[in-house]
């Protein structure tokens, strides 16, 4: 079977390394590259891909937003999220949004190949630790944590606030205005019943959302 894989990541060195790994697979006939949200949607609309390997953080839009758009336009296209963020931060959200799997960039190359093979067969890729976390969440689903009330964008901003980033730094990272970031911060504080960034930081550390 001929396999065409689309890599979505805004770091050229990382994309190059990933292409070299995938090129060693005999049935991989093409590896495409996308660097931002608009780019990936254009390529998916233009060509037929077997799987998309998607990063969460990118210019021109959140990877979560891109994932939802991809699942809307190409519901049968498997999307494997490959992110620098730890599983505790984003894995459950991306799986709920329709991803076929989630893995961190710290994973070994052979694990990535294993994950791609699994999602190509129509399966879901989960690490053992993530599978345990999902099972635990099912058992405690009636108890909703405060951060689970946030939208995907609010959650992303909350994590950055918890990491000590300023509104200006967050706006540059997410390609949004400082005013928009301030609006998100206000909503985050309201939804979580908090009054300051310090409370957000404390909550995030207690729930192991940040290192």
Compose a concise summary of this entry.
With 211 residues, the protein is α/β, with parallel strands linked by helices. The protein is 53% helix and 12% strand.
Index terms:
211 residues, Rossmann fold, Arc Repressor Mutant, subunit A, 2 domains, five-stranded parallel sheet, 10 helices
Describe this structure as you would to a colleague:
The chain folds into two domains: 3-139, Rossmann fold; 146-206, Winged helix-like DNA-binding domain superfamily/Winged helix DNA-binding domain (Arc Repressor Mutant, subunit A, Orthogonal Bundle), CATH 1.10.10.10. It has 211 residues and is of the alpha/beta class. It is 53% helix and 12% strand. Helix 2 packs parallel to helix 3 and helix 7 (152-162) packs across helix 9 (178-192). The chain has helices at residues 12-23, 37-46, 63-73, 87-96, 109-120, 128-139, 152-162, 167-174, 178-192, 197-206, and strands at 3-8, 28-34, 51-54, 79-83, 101-104. The relative contact order is 0.10. The model has no long low-confidence stretch (mean pLDDT 87).
């Amino acid at each position: 079977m001929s396999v065409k894989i689309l890599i979505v990541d805004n770091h050229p060195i990382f994309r190059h390394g990933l292409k070299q790994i995938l090129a060693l697979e005999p049935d991989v006939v093409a590896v495409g590259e996308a660097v931002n949200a608009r780019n990936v949607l254009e390529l998916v609309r233009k060509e037929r891909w077997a799987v998309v390997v998607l990063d969460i953080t990118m210019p021109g839009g959140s990877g979560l937003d891109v994932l939802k758009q991809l699942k809307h336009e190409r519901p049968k296209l498997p999307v494997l999220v490959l992110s620098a963020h730890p599983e505790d931060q984003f894995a459950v959200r991306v799986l709920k949004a329709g991803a076929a799997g989630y893995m961190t960039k710290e994973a070994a190359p052979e694990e990535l190949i294993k994950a791609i093979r699994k999602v190509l067969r129509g399966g879901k890729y989960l690490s053992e630790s993530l599978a345990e976390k999902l099972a635990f969440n099912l058992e405690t689903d009636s108890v909703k944590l405060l951060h689970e009330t946030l939208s995907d964008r609010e959650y992303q901003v909350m994590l950055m606030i918890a990491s000590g980033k300023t509104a200006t730094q967050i706006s540059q990272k997410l390609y949004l205005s400082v005013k928009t970031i301030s609006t998100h911060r206000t909503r985050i504080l309201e939804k979580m019943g908090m009054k300051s960034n310090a409370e957000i930081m404390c909550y995030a550390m207690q729930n192991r959302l940040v290192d």
